[in-house]
Design a protein that fits this description.
This protein is mainly β and 192 residues long. It contains 1 helix and 11 strands; from the N terminus they run βββββββββββα. The chain has a 4-stranded antiparallel β-sheet with strand order 3-1-2-6, with no helix packed on it.
Amino acid sequence: VKKTPLNQFSRPRASGIIAIDLRGEDKLVDVAITDGDAEVLLVASHGKGIRFKEADVRPMGRGAAGVRGIKLPEGHEVIGLSIVGEGLILTATENGYGKRTPLDDFPIQGRGGQGVIAIQTTERNGNTVGALQVADDDEIMLISSSGTLVRTGVDEISVMGRNTQGVRLIRVESGQRLVGLARIESIEEDDE
């Protein structure tokens, strides 16, 4: 993770400008604008999440690589970044299971630790593929590797503690998996 003052992005070029130095197999997962006093929640593919104060990350230049946000076991990656606010965290796994968890269930820690379980990554669930901060009136779109899309209301998904497996969000065929989820505008707002 890293944070960079917005004024360092005030003179973009047609070819773009460097925002972060990505090394080796690293890739950019997400970007968010903060007020400088926020809390950050990172969730990784092995089902753990870490919540820490933004102040734990010092400001850096655009070309810096950043500092460790969460320790990861070999073969796993960060799959979600949330700036903590009102609502719940929705986590989803590759076998189509998920749940909503209150943000208060995630204790504030120092950055760079192993974090706490956000959702169990059992043989039934598979790895975590998405984590979003949601409100009761939001809707989400679930996308499977076969191209199936399912739109569902967030309020239909069970609220459970951190150390649980969750409930079925989408039925995926054998050999397929859930590859992503996105928060979308609610149907009522679409009609207006």
